[in-house]
Design goal:
The complex is a heterodimer of chains A (about 325) and B (about 350).
Chain A lengths: L1 H28 L16 H11 L5 H13 L5 E2 L4 E2 H36 L4 H15 L2 H15 L16 H38 L3 H9 L3 H13 L1 H12 L6 H6 L5 H10 L3 H29 L7
Antiparallel strand pairs in A: 1-2
Helix pairs in contact in A: 1-3, 1-13, 4-5, 4-7, 5-7, 6-7, 7-9, 8-9, 10-13, 12-13
Chain B lengths: L1 H15 L2 E12 L2 E13 L3 E6 L6 H9 L7 E9 L2 E2 L5 H7 L4 E4 L13 H12 L4 H14 L5 H5 L8 H12 L6 E5 L7 H18 L2 E6 L2 H7 L2 E6 L2 E7 H6 L4 H8 L49 E5 L2 E4 L11 H8 L4
Parallel strand pairs in B: 3-8, 3-9, 6-7, 7-8
Antiparallel strand pairs in B: 1-2, 1-4, 4-5, 9-10, 10-12, 11-12
């Protein structure tokens, strides 16, 4: 078990190195550099600019630049955001925290909905309950998130006024508990919109997995042993049905920091998705590069987590 | 006088029988209609007896076994008739009671050991699960019992295997585990549904030896479902030949192999390759077992597969009749039956199993 995890972590390192090289090359391929903006200033002397370039190491070969960039990244230094005049790491950190809570809450809703719905509709397939649940999943599949989120915002935010229509926290809230509740209050509507649409894949996955598992021969073995029906499901069907869900769960945890462009935009929630979109629009490349790297690292860590989770729940995965 | 005595014997046999199934009819729903896959089977199994059920795929062997355990999906199956096990009618007991009987009084061995075990549970857990359900042993006693069971079915390093997962064992080992689970509570009746089909020949004979030992030691009755006539000859005390949901011939194993009567039995026996005589071609039974909706429900069901026989040799309502002591045959067509290539059967008559 531990051997497997350690081996899996060692495999991760070359992946990370490759990712950083690709991200760096992509950043280099983008037109201009950190000083291009200054060249537009008529007061700027081109010779002085060139000296600055030399000074900053921008004329060094790419691998020297790469290692100096990597050295910064490893210490959490992603450079300066041109647009915000802030260190990129500070800028990202605020958004990262916001996005983390939003994603965590929507992940919570996704599974709290998906587990019972998927298990019920799989166990009693082709009953009325199952038809209603699959009907919901079809609607969820068909409804685009950006439309659905808008409707949620309109109905519960504007018409009924039950929830705030934007932001991540009420201005001028004191610290402590009031601040916390205000945060949660702002999170509910966007995270619920995300979850109601996002959960349908998991529901369908679970449903078909339960239906498949309950026809397996070891379920017959269990029945032939005299295992009562309820225990056939709790002891044999469900755990086996959760394997593919467990396989994607790691990715979902890693995706906690990636955020959702649509929902953050619609609920004007200051998160990573919004930041990414804005930075591309205003050509704030140092931020874009940092975000791409971060999302890539998240994906790699997600794969690692998935493998570890799967190896915990499925003994067949454990490599000796 | 003699006749009376015989019928008395039959009576007492039925009364003392471990399992007695009467007119079992298992119908599956296809679309809006029910079609009988097992159609009026009457069968008894005694203690310390192996009753083999043979027949092609689709003849209703497994459907019968599943009916005994009530393993069919209740919503898609209609079960008629009576199945008495030690005086309890399995067809009419509650689900809760049935669950107490399954695993305790009846053990089931499945065909494919590769899929019959839960891949996520250790071997030990899967054996202990049965003990949990049917015994009041302490945790330590259960552990010891499961180790004992593993040793009993011939698994080396039982303590190790106890903690292993199914995928870590070979097919033969897994089948032993399946058997260990089936016999965990010393069931009076063991149902083995093609227990050796998925195994290679050497492992096959080991598993069969194991079943034989269990029969002797535990005084258990065994229903052995198979389409391997070699297995039948080696294991069975009595044989029921099933075709299209019905028993067409029922006899003790010696009578059946020495004097097979029903055309279906004779066809089956002559389609077995033999070491003794050289044949260019094996006998092939024409056609296939008809699918459920297409199964003939009237007259002799085997009629269509022996088309060279005249129609009037068959009975209109074929019944299973005792033609010799303990030897039952369905339909009168056996009296007239011949193979189209006569020499084929002649070559086979003196083959000893």
């Amino acid at each position: 078990m531990w051997k497997f995890i350690i081996r899996r972590i060692i495999i991760m390192f070359p992946q990370l190195v490759l990712l950083s090289v690709i991200v760096f090359i992509l950043a280099q391929m983008m037109p201009g550099d950190a000083l291009t903006g200054m060249a537009l200033d008529p007061d700027m002397d081109p010779a002085q600019l060139e000296a600055m370039r030399e000074d900053l190491g921008l004329n060094d070969p790419w691998y020297i630049q790469y290692f100096s960039w990597l050295g910064g990244v490893l210490q959490g230094d992603f450079g300066q955001s041109v647009a915000h005049a802030l260190p990129v790491s500070d800028l990202i950190w605020v958004r990262l925290v916001n996005t983390f809570w939003l994603s965590l809450m929507s992940l919570f809703f996704v599974y709290i909905l998906a587990l019972p719905l998927g298990l019920i509709s799989g166990r009693w397939n082709d009953t009325i309950a199952d038809r209603i649940i699959t009907g919901y999943t079809y609607i969820g599949f068909a409804a685009p998130l950006f439309i659905f989120a808008l409707i949620m915002l309109f109905v519960f935010g504007f018409q009924l006024g039950w929830f705030p229509t934007g932001g991540s926290v009420e201005a001028n809230t004191g610290g402590g508990l009031a601040y916390f509740w205000s945060k949660v209050y702002h999170l509910i509507l966007p995270s619920l919109s995300l979850a109601l649409i996002g959960t349908v894949t998991t529901v369908q996955y679970l449903r078909s997995e339960v239906i498949e598992t309950k026809q397996k021969e070891f379920i017959l073995t269990a029945r032939a042993k005299g295992v009562p029906e309820q225990k056939v499901y709790t002891g044999h069907v469900f755990r086996n049905s959760l394997l593919p869900i467990a396989a994607v769960f790691g990715y979902e945890i890693a995706a906690l920091i990636s955020g959702s462009v649509f929902v953050e935009r619609i609920f004007s929630y200051p998160g990573m998705g919004q930041l990414f979109l804005e930075s591309i629009q205003i050509r704030d490349f140092s931020v874009v590069t940092a975000l791409v790297l971060l999302f890539g690292v998240a994906a790699i860590i997600g794969a690692l987590l998935s493998d570890i989770i799967l190896s915990i729940v499925d003994p067949r995965i454990r490599i000796k | 006088m003699k006749y009376q005595l015989e019928s008395k014997e039959v009576m007492s046999m039925t009364e003392n029988a471990l399992l007695s199934a009467t007119n079992v009819k298992t119908s599956f729903r296809i679309g809006d209609d029910y079609y009988a896959a097992v159609d009026g089977v009457t069968l008894t199994v005694n203690n310390n007896e192996v009753v083999a059920i043979v027949g092609e795929s689709g003849s209703g062997k497994s459907a019968l076994a599943f009916s005994i355990l009530g393993l069919h999906d209740r919503f898609k199956t209609n079960l008629e008739g009576e199945i008495y096990l030690n005086g309890t009618d399995l067809t009419s007991v509650s689900t809760g009671k049935l669950n107490q009987i399954r695993g305790k009084d009846i053990g089931m061995i499945f065909q494919d050991p590769l899929t019959a075990l839960n891949p996520l549970k250790t071997i030990g857990d899967q054996i202990v699960e049965t003990l949990n359900l049917h015994t009041k042993l302490t945790a330590k006693e259960k552990y010891e019992r499961s180790i004992h069971l593993l040793k009993e079915v011939g698994i080396p390093r039982a303590e190790n295997v106890h903690q292993q997962f199914p995928h870590e064992l070979s097919g033969g080992m897994r089948q032993r585990v399946v058997i260990a689970i089936a016999i965990a509570c010393d069931p009076a009746l063991l149902i083995a549904d093609e227990p050796t089909t998925a195994l290679d020949a050497t492992i096959q004979s080991q598993i069969l030896d194991l079943l034989n030992e269990l029969k002797e030691e535990k005084d258990a009755g065994i229903i052995l479902i198979t389409h391997d006539l070699g297995v039948v000859a080696e294991m069975a005390d009595r044989v029921a030949v099933m075709y299209a949901g019905q028993i067409v011939e029922l006899a003790d194993v010696f009578s059946l192999f020495r004097n097979p009567l029903h055309p279906y039995t004779r066809s089956l026996l002559s389609s077995v390759p033999s070491v003794k005589d050289e044949k260019e071609m094996l006998h092939v039974i024409e056609g296939v077992v008809p699918s459920l909706p297409k199964m003939p429900r009237q007259g002799c069901r085997f009629k269509d597969r022996i088309p060279w026989m005249e129609d009037n040799v068959h009975e209109e309502h074929p019944e299973l009749r005792e033609v010799e002591n303990g030897h039952y045959v369905r339909c009168t067509c056996y009296k007239h039956f011949y193979f189209p290539e006569e020499e084929e059967e002649l070559a086979h008559v003196d083959t000893n199993y």
